[in-house]
């Protein structure tokens, strides 16, 4: 596994970050649309999503040189949609969930999503949790490539917000 770049900092999002987070989410929504995906094309996520994430202390930003390059929600709680998997998770204990991963247009093609996941993995381990679960749309090719590259295991299908999603888990070591 590659060594983490010290130029990147993962930190909890502040309310002052909300506008930039929403801008990054909007860019990601448009990219999904341009790719022909139906993921995130139904009004979710929206500007309130980032505010709620920040208020719930689950919103995180990845900064490079004091500029927000990416966003993700990291949730240390049971994801109800994951309780009914068509397949089997690798583990049954505590886990962190990653939702709403988005990278700024300015930082595309620089491996930022990979760095974001690596920083999240370290953060999750620092909280003594050794499993990450994540889902994505069947047609989100970029996310599927990242999950494959970082050795997340395909575990089956979950239904999230009424749509089938590919579900993955990684046991952290």
Quick rundown:
The chain has 173 residues and is an alpha+beta fold.
CATH class: Alpha Beta
Number of strands: 8
Low-confidence stretches are: none
Q: Mean pLDDT, nearest integer?
A: 93
Distance between the termini: 12 Å
How is the largest sheet built, in terms of strand order?
1-2-3-5-6-8-7-4
CATH topology: Aminopeptidase
CATH architecture: 3-Layer(aba) Sandwich
Question: What is the chain-wise order of helices and strands?
Answer: EHHEEEEHEHEE
Output the number of helix runs.
4
Tertiary shape: globular
Strand content: 25-35%
What characterizes the major β-sheet?
8 strands, mixed
How many distinct domains?
1
Please give the radius of gyration in angstroms: 15 Å
Considering DSSP H and I runs of 4 or more, what fraction of the residues is helical?
25-40%
The CATH homologous superfamily corresponds to: Gcn5-related N-acetyltransferase (GNAT)
Structural class by SSE content: alpha+beta
Give the key terms.
173 residues; Aminopeptidase; alpha+beta
Structural notes for this entry:
It is a single chain. The protein is an alpha+beta fold and 173 residues long. The protein has a single domain, classed as Gcn5-related N-acetyltransferase (GNAT) (Aminopeptidase, 3-Layer(aba) Sandwich), CATH 3.40.630.30. It has 4 helices and 8 strands. Strands 1-2-3-5-6-8-7-4 form an 8-stranded mixed β-sheet. Strand 7 and strand 8 form a beta hairpin. The longest helix has 17 residues. It is globular. The mean pLDDT is 93.
